[in-house]
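Below is one protein, fold included:
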Amino acid sequence: MNERGAIPLIIFLVLAFVLVLALPAIIMELFPIVKLLFQVMMAFLLYAIVRTYLGSSPLTLIITAILVYVLVFKYTYITSAAWIFQTILMFAGFSVMIWVLGLSLRKH
């Protein structure tokens, strides 16, 4: 790739990355029910993760309550952007793994 074409591509990728990370906040502002659904989903997800590590105890509920307050109610937009970023990375990682497996299983 020539160097003159690399800069616009990098700028395009950075802008696309920022847009994808801002998309959950934009959708939550346009549709408040999406924000509520995300908060409920994240609260259950956080409880399940904490319960997996600590078991069913009062400490689980205390830590879950703190995490839900901080991650779900106080920093909803940052948490949603991080969740989208993690989901994109997960799909990208699995697609690369499937591509490599496809190449390795192909008969030469």
Notes: The chain has four helices and no strands. The mean pLDDT is 88. Helices lie at 3-30, 32-54, 58-74, 76-105.
